[in-house]
Amino acid sequence: MSTLSSREPLFWAVQRQRNRGVIGLFVVVIAFLALYAYLFPGLFTLGGFSKFTQNWFPLALVAMAQTLLMMMGGISLAIGPLVSLGAVIAATVMGTAFGVTGAIVAVLLAGLVVGGITGAIVSYLRLPAIIVTLAGSFIIGGIALIILPRPGGVIPAGFSDFLAGHTPAAFGLLVVIVILWKLYLATPLGLGIYAAGDNPIGAFRSGVAVNRVRIATYALSGLLTTLAGLFVAAQTGSGDPVIGTPFTLNSIAAAVLGGVSFLGGRGTMRGALAGSLLLSVMINVMFFLGFPPVAQYIAQGLIIVGAVAIPQFTGRWRRS
Amino acid sequence: MAGSTAFLAAKGLSKGFFGNPVLKDVSISLVPGRVHALLGENGAGKSTLINLLSGSLAPDGGEILMDGQPLSRLNPAGARNAGIAVVQQELSLAPDLSIAENIGLGAYPRRLGFVDYPELARRTAEVRDLVGLDEPLATPVGTLALGRRQMVEIAKALFRKPRVLILDEPTSSLSAHEAGILSALVLRLKQEGVAVLYISHRLNEVMALCDYVTVLKDGVCTADQPLAGVDAEGLVRLMVGRDAGDLFPKWEPNAAGDLLVDVQGFSSGMARDVSFTARRGEVVGIGGLVGQGQEDFVLGLYGALAAQAASATICGQKAPFSSVGAATRAGLAYVPADRKHEGLILPHSIASNLILPSLGRLNRAGMRDRSAERNLVSDLARRLTIKGDTARPVQALSGGNQQKVALAKWLPLAPSVLLLNDPTRGVDIDTKREIYLMLRSFAAEGKTVVLISSDTPELVHLCDRVTVFREGRAVATIARGHITEEAIVGAAMGVEVREQAA
Amino acid sequence: MPAPASSSASGSVMRNLLRNGPFLTLLLVAIVWIGASFFSRGFGTYGHLRYILELASIIGIVAAGQTLVVIGGGIDLSVGAVITVTAITLPMLSPAWDPTGIFGIVAVLALASLIGLINGIGAAFLKVPPIIMTLAMATLLQGFLVIVAGGSAVSVENAAVIWLGSARPGGIPADILLWVAVMVGVLLLLHRTATGARFFAIGANSIAARLSGVNVERTTLLLFTLSGFFAGLAGLLVLGMNRQGYVGIGDPYLLTSIAAVVLGGTSILGGAGTYAGTIPGSVLLVTITALITVVNASPGWRNIMFGGLILILLLLSGREKQR
């Protein structure tokens, strides 16, 4: 807390510097938001705002989860199944004696553990993240199917109404998560994410516990992902073992839009949040303009390619 | 003062990679308040010794002592805690973090588990001033020029208040002003009783700064003595172990043939508006400080980098070439400086690497002709004395033999223009001599060699002409008879050097 | 080709074999088969074997393209969507004037190859990482498919495709014969042609390959076009066996194709591997699925076994290929 409240110039100056490169994205997001607000003035009512942020919330979480890994030069193809796992755990535990509180704890714990194990495999066994998470997507999806073979389970109406009803609770939660993230980034472990992503050998030589940073980051990423699953379960009122599937792609799309490099480093959470918001607003705008729902897939595909291709195309053929 | 007892000492260190010994029975002791020079050619084992002393590598034999106590399993963390700080050539910085966050990395002051930013700002400001950085502490390191990053790296080492400071070629990317700041800093640390190990190729720097010298040659210690009373020439002899004239073949003029490379107003990458010619029978050198557009120019000739030219003819064809394929078909071949990443496919076998440029030329009925390939490989291996099984991955070879593979793979194509980028970097002396001989005989066969080199004596002894690059432009072309180290270095640094009577 | 030499001492032969992906996979298939035939009477019969091989031929053919792309240093996440495209568009592209159905097949394979080519253009010229490019392509196709098919299933009347899915010339199903042809073609391409050697080269180090005169862009285009082509071919088989196509029919083949490649010992990082390993890898995947159906375990367990197998085989054979 002290670091935030003491108004230390260095800290804030560093924060300001991190906006470099994402300003353009912010402008685009604001433009889209303005367009959306123009098309749908209901955005400024409590209900409209709540619904809008509820659609954005799970996407924002998985975008953050994916960005965390990409900042370290990793990637996860298991985001979707892990969202599903979070949803089915929520829906099965809430009906038992453990109740809502027990379910929340179970969901968050599952994310931490699954993420931590993935991180440990990637860092200690030195296997490529893409293939480990591919295998993980099978395993995690399988576990979700075993826990709940078909959609069902119990989500108390009160819980659904609180998170996904006519309240901006989801937005509030997102603000809390962002503040917690800022705090985490002000710890040595948090700054280690950048160091380990930019220059793992240099970070290791400098005394950063690179493996510990990696495992903690994967665990955190898992936590955010299952939390998205919990929210999706609340939104739909049940657990569905395959509901998370689209989130793998969406998370990568949002992270790429947010300017996260595939080579590690050079990404920011604010970029990922902006990227996910852009994606979310874009889907809404297209809906309002009367495009068929599937058109969003086409637009999404084009945007991903464009977001990666344009800056790379203008660059040189070799690494700088 | 602890007097002359060593902070850090190594006894009988040995280390090898892939069965090739790199260090053999090397001892060194670093004493407080002494600036200790470590000299040696590229590939003499200096970097390996530093990695051993800093715990990044484990020795195969010998021991490392700290304050007289043996350190059994030294790792980077242990070395740091013991007060050993290393500034390596490969920087350990994270471009996305700020100057302050980089300087403190791995040793952040904390409060309640968080990085104590006020304290970090205070402490990094101190070391920043020591190295003369004036950028704000919040500046991301990625936005700094290379020389400034080097100063951040040095500040990072000082941040931990080291007892032993190891500087590995710290001035190679520094401006003269920055190098001056560093010299003053080293002398100040010496006053404060820090033991400094100073690795440099710049002998005048070493003579000015250091008190004591250890010289490595081919992994063996050839000198370990006070620097006082030793002259620069003597040091060079200890490093090279041979007279320079012995290393290079005797230069003899070849009959100058027609122009093979003739480009005017050629621009590619950093290289701007370069005019350059080379004839059959010539070895044309390209000199200058590292990174002045030499590589981009040659990559442009080779079709690997987009290029424009007022007029350009290479091997009788209109250039610039649109692709590497077009260039190789015209008769060009290129051997990159970074053979591990650009010259060779390390995990693939020696044979696969040797065949790669010839693929498609050895086909029979659309399929690869295995027996022709085998013959080609064994022929090349014999001609370049690459011993052993050619099915081994090329990464198992020593640097010199790797370089031979990177060169040999082009021979079946019989190129008429050979573009070489620092071909002897990290290569042992015997292989160097082989490469030099090959270059000259190549030219004698009526072909053209274009040689980029960071090793000025190479240019002096091998080339018929040397073009010097500065800031992307060809600033001077020096003809045979006028090629001296002074002339090349002078042109590279923009200083007029008066020619002395020979 | 880049596999370490089969050198020297006999003691290391065993260790080399245990580090050899294709061999491990083959061993695993044999163990599973022998074990299963003890527990389940139907498992050892010729009919069942044939059925399993028919299913494996689909995975094997998709995985042929995937193997090539992975060896070339990429990955193709659009193969599932390409299979679906093939299945959905075949009826539309099979005109009534051609009773043989050959035209439809050619048109659909051309379409599949074109999709692959576009992937290749994105990867080679726009420099989009293959994983992103093909993922985006899969998303895009998903959108188009819903627009084209409108969510309903289409049934097949194309004679040639029905023949592929049901004929048994000489007692051997046509799809297995097709797979054998693919095996021969891909193995020859990879290990006996200059083009195959270039796949390995760009997969291991594209910069060094380019500087050695390999046309990296053209090779990349070829790789992705082939992957699209093979996915299209597999789509025809899927259609021939199911007799109908619907949106999502190809989805299960995406991850299984990658799993078959990895199970076969091909390095996911590119530059090393062989289709000879993917073949038993495909059979193994289908066998496990069949086994799980026989013992009535849930599909969840099947997925867990798939994932576990990939990890275990990576650990056994892929350790030295770390990045």
Automatic annotation (TrEMBL), chain A:
It is a multi-pass membrane protein. It comes from the Bacteria. The chain crosses the membrane at residues 20-44, 56-79, 85-115, 127-149, 169-194, 215-235, 247-265, 272-291, 297-315. Coiled coil: none annotated. Part of the ABC transporter complex LsrABCD involved in autoinducer 2 (AI-2) import. Probably responsible for the translocation of the substrate across the membrane. The complex is composed of two ATP-binding proteins (LsrA), two transmembrane proteins (LsrC and LsrD) and a solute-binding protein (LsrB). Keywords: Cell inner membrane, Cell membrane, Membrane, Transmembrane, Transmembrane helix, Transport. InterPro entries: ABC_transp_permease. It is found in: Cell membrane. CDD domains: TM_PBP1_transp_AraH_like (cd06579). The keyword Nucleotidyltransferase does not apply. This is Autoinducer 2 import system permease protein LsrD. GO terms for molecular function: transmembrane transporter activity. Pfam families: BPD_transp_2 (PF02653). GO terms for cellular component: plasma membrane.
From TrEMBL, chain B:
Pfam families: ABC_tran (PF00005). It comes from the Bacteria. InterPro entries: AAA+_ATPase, ABC_carbohydrate_import_ATPase, ABC_transporter-like_ATP-bd, ABC_transporter-like_CS, P-loop_NTPase. Residues 8-243, 254-496 form the ABC transporter domain. GO terms for molecular function: ATP binding; ATP hydrolysis activity. PROSITE patterns: ABC_TRANSPORTER_1 (PS00211), ABC_TRANSPORTER_2 (PS50893). The keyword DNA-binding does not apply. SUPFAM superfamilies: P-loop containing nucleoside triphosphate hydrolases. Keywords: ATP-binding, Cell membrane, Membrane, Nucleotide-binding, Repeat, Sugar transport, Translocase, Transport. Gene3D superfamilies: P-loop containing nucleotide triphosphate hydrolases. Belongs to the ABC transporter superfamily. This is Monosaccharide ABC transporter ATP-binding protein, CUT2 family. It comes from Faunimonas pinastri.
From TrEMBL, chain C:
PANTHER family: ABC TRANSPORTER PERMEASE PROTEIN YPHD-RELATED-RELATED, INNER MEMBRANE ABC TRANSPORTER PERMEASE PROTEIN YJFF. Keywords: Cell membrane, Membrane, Transmembrane, Transmembrane helix. Coiled coil: none annotated. InterPro entries: ABC_transp_permease. It is found in: Cell membrane. One of its GO terms (molecular function) is transmembrane transporter activity. Its main location: membrane. It is a multi-pass membrane protein. This is Monosaccharide ABC transporter membrane protein, CUT2 family. One of its GO terms (cellular component) is plasma membrane. The chain crosses the membrane at residues 21-39, 51-70, 102-126, 133-156, 176-200, 221-241, 253-272, 279-295, 301-318. The keyword Transmembrane applies. It holds the Pfam family BPD_transp_2. Signal peptide: none annotated.
